[in-house]
């Protein structure tokens, strides 16, 4: 968990404690507040000490319970402010994958240049519909989220229209392991690799593959995207990290450039993809 995120959560916790202590109904103990809310006392303690992230409903209930419902909007604004940096999958996927894909569509639409690193699956920017379908099904099962698979696939395919717009540029690096990951049936993976071979040479796509036997100056790390040098989005199992400070963006750009030193492009990239494709038993 990032230091900035934890600091913001602790500050929100201090504000919650302040509201409890300064309740118009008189100072409330943590136990008294928990009884009013119908919560275990441990939850009140965790929220006040920055060891648990509240939900919007938690904050609304807290404001009412301490006799200050008007501060609900302030508390929710604080939450939104620091959660914009760590966006948990649990919250994002509460309504399914399609809304998340639409958010990404908006981010990409307003961007001119993307730098992406993928080390575990083919990038969504170049996925076939069948491949994307299996990815969404797998993550829905993992996250126990609503299965709006077809809506999510359509949204992801819509985003790929960006690739055919003048002035756009996708700089994509993928580890060879991402090409080999059998996250779908063999025939789907074969078609996906055929798609990748076909995009090599597109004006708007610069595709680099880091072979499994390539020397690496740094470990592969997590997948990430850099959007116009203004935002970095890093993917992890529990959340997306949205990072917008200049120093961090510069760091991730150095990571991308360093990984690119180990990549092959153009015809050499096609050869790596074709080699993987030949080993698939359809």
What structural category characterises the helix and strand content? alpha+beta
Number of helices: 13
Query: Can you give the mean pLDDT?
Result: 94
For the record, the count of structural domains works out to: 2
Key attributes of the depicted protein:
282 residues; 2 domains; alpha+beta; 52% helix; eight-stranded mixed beta sheet; Endonuclease, Chain A; 434 Repressor (Amino-terminal Domain); single chain
Question: What is the fold's blueprint, element by element?
Answer:
Layout: H1 3-21, H2 30-37, H3 41-48, H4 56-65, H5 72-83, E1 86-88, H6 89-92, H7 97-109, E2 113-118, H8 129-143, H9 149-159, E3 169-175, H10 176-180, H11 186-199, E4 205-210, E5 224-227, E6 231-235, E7 239-243, H12 246-260, E8 264-265, H13 266-278
Parallel strand pairs: 2-3, 3-4
Antiparallel strand pairs: 1-7, 2-5, 4-8, 5-6, 6-7
Helix pairs in contact: 1-5, 2-3, 4-5, 7-9, 8-9, 11-13
């Amino acid at each position: 968990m990032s230091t900035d995120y934890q600091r913001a959560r602790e500050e929100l916790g201090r504000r919650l404690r302040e509201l409890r202590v300064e309740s118009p109904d008189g100072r409330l103990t943590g136990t008294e507040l928990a009884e009013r809310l119908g919560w275990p006392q441990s939850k009140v303690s965790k929220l006040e000490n920055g060891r648990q992230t509240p939900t919007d409903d938690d904050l609304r209930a807290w404001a009412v319970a301490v006799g200050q419902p008007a501060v609900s909007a302030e508390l929710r604004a604080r939450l939104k402010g620091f959660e914009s940096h760590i966006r948990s999958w649990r919250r994002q996927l509460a309504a399914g994958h399609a809304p998340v894909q639409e958010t990404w569509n908006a981010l990409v639409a307003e961007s001119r240049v993307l730098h992406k690193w993928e080390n575990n699956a083919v990038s969504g920017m170049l996925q076939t519909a069948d491949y994307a379908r299996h990815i969404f099904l797998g993550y829905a099962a993992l996250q126990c989220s609503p299965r709006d698979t077809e809506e999510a696939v359509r949204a992801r395919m819509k985003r790929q229209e960006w690739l055919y717009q003048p002035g756009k540029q996708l700089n994509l690096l993928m580890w060879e392991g991402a090409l080999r990951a059998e996250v779908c049936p063999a025939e789907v993976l074969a078609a996906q690799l055929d798609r990748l071979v076909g995009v090599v040479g597109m004006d708007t796509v610069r595709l680099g593959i880091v072979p499994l036997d390539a020397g690496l100056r740094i470990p592969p790390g997590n997948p990430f995207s850099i959007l116009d040098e203004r935002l970095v989005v890093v993917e992890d199992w529990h959340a997306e990290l949205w990072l917008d400070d200049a120093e961090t963006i510069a760091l991730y750009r150095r990571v991308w450039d360093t990984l690119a030193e180990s990549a092959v492009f153009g015809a050499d990239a096609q050869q790596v993809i074709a080699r993987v494709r030949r080993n698939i038993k359809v």
